[in-house]
Design brief:
By secondary structure, the protein is α+β, with helices and mostly antiparallel strands. It has a single domain, classed as Nuclear Transport Factor 2, Chain: A (Roll), CATH 3.10.450. Helix content is 28%, strand content 38%. The chain contains 3 helices and 6 strands, in the order αββααββββ. Strands 1-2-6-5-4-3 form a 6-stranded antiparallel β-sheet. A hairpin with a 7-residue loop joins β3 and β4. The N and C termini lie far apart (53 Å). The relative contact order is 0.20.
Length: 136
């Protein structure tokens, strides 16, 4: 009886394990800071493609900035954040896929905290983290 139940159970567990997809790790450098984000593969597939010399980006810089501004307003930890930089960059190992990388800073007395957002070409925003020197 145990052997008969074991085979279907193993098949179920193996199928479930194969169905799980690990997110894609995106690593960017903004100045000297290594920025890391984890993006599900299906989100990248839905983000669309863009060939730089063939057309304008599907998401303009103005639209990306508007989305970042909305994100700042909706997240308490970003209250008062100021835009430091925004760059248009290719997504590594994903042909014709691009995104914007925004660096924000919030003031805390005499120091500031950096925050990073990725904006995919379909307008989806992904929070990223800057790695401290000790982790690199």
């Amino acid at each position: 009886m145990f052997k008969k139940a074991l085979i279907p159970l193993l098949a179920l567990v193996t199928t479930s394990a194969n169905a799980f997809q690990f997110p894609v790790e995106l690593i960017e450098y903004v100045g000297e800071t290594r920025v890391v984000a984890f993006v599900p593969e299906h989100d990248l597939a839905q983000a669309g493609t863009w060939a730089p010399f063939d057309s304008t980006p599907p998401l303009s810089i103005s639209d990306a900035l508007s989305l970042v501004k909305t994100q700042i307003a909706s997240e308490p930890k970003l209250a008062g954040a100021r835009l430091q930089t925004i760059d248009l960059a290719p997504i590594p190992n994903h042909d014709k896929q691009w995104h914007y990388v925004a660096k924000l800073a919030t003031a805390h007395g005499d120091h500031h905290e950096d925050h990073f957002l990725l904006v995919l070409m379909n307008g989806q925003i992904i929070s990223a983290m800057g790695e401290p020197d000790s982790i690199k």
